[in-house]
Each structure stands twice: as C-alpha cells, then as structure tokens.
Amino acid sequence: MNTKTLMMGIAWALLLAIVCCPAAQAQKKRNKPYKKPAQKALVLYYSQTSNTKAVAQEIAKQLKADIEEIVPVKPYDGDFQATIDRCKQDQKDGVKPEIKPLKSKLKKYKVIFLGFPVWFGTYAPPIATLLDKVDLSGKTIVPFCTFGSGGLESSAAYLGQAQPKAKILDGYGVRAARMDAMPAEVDQFLKASGFVKGKVVKLDDFSASHRVSNDEAAIYDAAIGDYPMMQNTRPLFVASRSIPDGTEYLFTACEKRKEPVDPNIAMRPPKEMQVYVIVLDGKAPVFTKVVR
Ligand SMILES: Cc1cc2nc3c(=O)[nH]c(=O)nc-3n(C[C@H](O)[C@H](O)[C@H](O)COP(=O)(O)O)c2cc1C
Question: Which of 1, 98, 159, 281 is deepest in the core (most CB within 10 A)?
C-alpha cells in the first residue's frame, strides 16, 4: 500500500467515525427542524340529532385529533317514530344503510375513537355498515356514545364481534339528558385512559351491596322520574360510594311483574339490570346509565 492510499484510508475512517459517532448523530438530530409526529388518533362518528356530534367534537378538541362524520347516503331525517319504522323495515329486508365514502385514510391511524347514538341497544345502523366495509384489525378502537338510558357496554360487545382483531378499549357514554356534564366527563375519561396527561379524580370502590331501604327506594324512584323505559322496574339491592360533591348509588333493579296466574307455569326469571344514580349536594337524584 503506498502512502497516498494509506492517507486516503485514514481520512475515510476519520470521516466515518465523525458521522457515525453518537455525539455527531445527536448534533445532526438537533440540527433537524422539529417535525410534528404523524397524527395517530381519528375521531369517527355518526350522529342523527347532534348529541354524539357534540361528544365527538369535544374529544377531538381535547385530543387535537382529526375528526370525520359518517354520512348515510339517505339521511335519517325523519322523527323518532319514522326512524324506528325505517330501521324495522331495513331489518325485515335484511339491508343496512349505504354510507358515503370516508375521506380519512384509516391506515394512517392507530387509534380510532368511534362514536354513535345507541339504537335498539347497540350502535346505530350506519356504524354497522362501516364495520362491514373496513378492516380494523390491529387498531385500537375507543367507543363513545350517547343514549336515552344506556347501551355502551352492549354496543362494545357487538363491536368486538364485528371486528374481532381490533383492540376495543372501555369507552365513554352519556345520557342525552346529561349533555351539560359531558365536557368535564370527557376530560376525566381521556386522562383516566391515558390519552391526555393530567390529574384524575380517583373514586373509592362501591360499598358492599345490601337490600334497598325505603329511603333508597325513594332515591331510585326520583332518579327514574318519568323516563318511559324504566317505569316497569323496581330496585332490589344497592351499593354506594362518595364522589366529588355527592354520592353515587349502584342499584340492582329488575322488571316489575305480575304474579303468574298458574304457579305451575314456568316463567323466565325477571330481567335484572344495573342502574347508576348520582345525587349531587343540593340536587335531585339523576340516573347516569342503565347496564342491561
Ligand atoms: C331509532 C332510535 C332507537 C333508539 N334506541 C335507544 C336504545 O335502545 N337505548 C337508549 O338508551 N336510547 C335509544 N335511543 C335514544 C338515542 O340513543 C339518543 O337520543 C341519542 O343521544 C341520539 O344521539 P344523536 O343526537 O347523536 O343522534 C334511540 C333513538 C332512536 C332514534
């Protein structure tokens, strides 16, 4: 090897050492302009009367996430009864509503917040159409919904069946009658599930359950008020815990039933349900959700 080749070899080795050494790499990194990480969460929702839309917008705002509405080709623009009739007819005909193509590229997102109103105990039909069309395998889905009385848990179970290879997280649900409590609850939900940094108010476990007293039954009745679907229910057991500014009750309730005419005729046992009720200081009892 002559001197010139040797010198060139040393020069190359020195250059490589400078370029590859960690300090040089760190310097190189520092010199790179800051690039915002790719957006990883999408808020995707259907809403007929804007309750779910409000929750979607709140989640997107707090997360600074992208947001898109699922739009049926033929909108559900009738009243409550017309919507029920259309759903029943579609079910009879075995059809699901067509939806407009999504603008978002789902493969860009690892986490999808999927929002819907609860219809007939599960997600509204435009979501069923979406779940037929897309493959969410490997993605994390965070369901959120609005409802008259409840349905988050049952919807999440159907979601798991429709997309068995997706990871379904515990979601957030709120009654249409409690939308004013929603922004603060979304804040706590996103913090508790680790999507946003911040203080989470830790709640105690519920106490052991006991048979309801007359006073507790009166709280149940006041919370149910004149909500139609709950009129035929009565509380059996109750547990409770302290929450900020009040008390939360967890009632086990069941359908009220007339005695069987013939005691020899076997009847199905009355359906039980969990009814969550809050009583804030100085306020009337309200139920927050029913889990059937
Ligand atoms: C056809 C239909 C079926 C419904 N079924 C249920 C139900 O099974 N359980 C429930 O709690 N609420 C039910 N609701 C009430 C809606 O879930 C509730 O009003 C929701 O907040 C509407 O959301 P949106 O404003 O985003 O459309 C139903 C409403 C409609 C129109």
Answer: 159
At the top level of CATH, the class of 41-192 is alpha beta
> 60: closest CA among 39, 74, 35?
39
For 62, the token pair is 């707090």
Of 28 and 260, the one with more pLDDT: 260
Question: Over 80: is that where the pLDDT of 27 sits?
Answer: no
Cα 266 to Cα 52, 259, 263, 269: the distances in Å are 42, 12, 7, 9
The answer to whether residues 33 and 103 touch, using CB atoms and an 8 Å cutoff, is: no
* From 119, 146, 230, 276, mutation site for ligand 1 pocket: most ligand atoms within 8 A of C-beta: 119
Counting from 1 in the atom list of ligand 1, the atom nearest the Cα of 176 is: 21
Distances (CA, A) of 203 to 48, 62, 173: 34, 22, 18
Model confidence over 113-163: pLDDT tens digits? 999 999 999 999 999 999 999 999 999 999 999 999 999 999 999 999 999
The Cβ of residue 44 has, within 10 Å, a number of other Cβ atoms equal to 23
| CB-based pocket (< 6 A), ligand 1 | 47-53, 80, 83-84, 87, 117-121, 146-151, 176
Q: Which ligand 1 atom sits closest to the C-alpha of 45?
A: 26
Could you write out the DSSP letters of every residue in 229-277? GGTTEEEEEEEEEEETTEEEEEEEEEE--PPPSSTTS--PPPPEEEEEE
Secondary structure of residue 81 in the 3-state scheme:
helix
Q: Name the β-bridge partners of 286.
A: 278
Cα separation, 109 vs 44, whole angstroms: 11
Q: What is the pTM of this model?
A: 0.87
